Amino acid sequence: MTAGDPPRRPGFPLRMPTSASPQNAIKSGASGAYKQGDSALKGTSKEAHRRSSGTTAGLATGLGLDSQAVRARMVQKLAAQGVADSRVLAAMMQVERHRFVDSALVNQAYEDTSLPIGLGQTISKPNVVARMLELLVKGQDGKLGRVLEIGTGCGYQAALLAQLASEVYSIERLRGLHHKARDNLRPLRVGNLHLLFGDGMLGYASGAPYAAIIAAAGGEALPQAWLDQLAVGGRLVAPVHGAGGSQALVVVDKTARGITQTLLEAVHFVPLKSGTS
Ligand code: SAH
Q1: Pocket of ligand 1, candidates 114, 127, 152: which has the most ligand atoms within 8 Å of its Cβ, to mutate?
Q2: Which of 34, 39, 97, 168 is most deeply packed, by most CB within 10 A?
Q3: Which of 52, 67, 114, 124 is catalytic?
Q4: For position 66, what pLDDT does the model report?
Q5: pLDDT tens by residue, 190-227
Q6: Catalytic: 124?
Q7: Could you tell me which residues are beta bridge partners of residue 123?
Q8: Could you give all domains of the chain from N- to C-terminal order, each with its CATH number?
Q9: Residue 8 burial by CB count (10 A; 0-12/13-18/19+): exposed, middle or buried?
Q10: Which residues of the chain fall short of a pLDDT of 50?
Q11: Alpha carbon of 172 to ligand 1 centroid (Å)
Q12: Cα angle at 245 between 243 and 249, to 5 degrees?
């Protein structure tokens, strides 16, 4: 049930909005445009590994050279916890999580824990990230088509999505984190990942329809824009608040006959907020 590529493709390089609406900003040609480099995410070769060990984080902790082994242990644990999709496990093996956290937290980068990324936000624990990605790709063969992520944060999940999809749009409402993600991702040169600054509650109409939409922040209800921008045959995975303020994961499948929603386990994500800051 792959949704396939939509017929219309937005122009590149994309202009990243500086106002609340990505759609407007693209038209107005606002500053801050950013498109990742052309080549796919690299990082497995010995050479790439040597380079990564030269980062401040790598030098500070010695994690750079042996991060592959630490990551392999994280992936083994994820598999033991029930993550079965080989695409998701391969992506978690490929993307170096320690590149996305502050140097003081690098030693915890491969533990199954959420970590602060600044401005009161957190990077989800690997188990939750893997679970959501697995839900997103379930039932789809091969790579996903075009994907929208709401809540770029530090950019870690966006890098994973770029491994699983042909094209990824990721929106962040906090300028500081949008810039942090850009800095974290720049050395990885992820050609199919487009970072946007704006209010993700509006989705990103220029890239629609999406084969998949994933949110890393939870609101009271799913914004209508997300449902509208999801392709027929597409799937949305997001945390939503239920009665009493508790949060749960919801999976939405859009079919020609309409929308089906499945409520899953309780989760704890940062709040989905409107506007930019
Ligand atoms: N996937 C991220 C997780 C970041 S936490 C990572 O790998 O780091 C969730 C993020 O959602 C926060 O950065 C928060 O600022 C952002 N967010 C909340 N509401 C948003 C909105 N309406 N539009 C875009 N981003 C939003």
Answers
A1: 152
A2: 168
A3: 124
A4: 79
A5: 999 999 999 999 999 999 999 999 999 999 999 999 99
A6: yes
A7: 115
A8: 22-51+115-271 (3.40.50.150)
A9: exposed
A10: 1-61
A11: 6
A12: 80
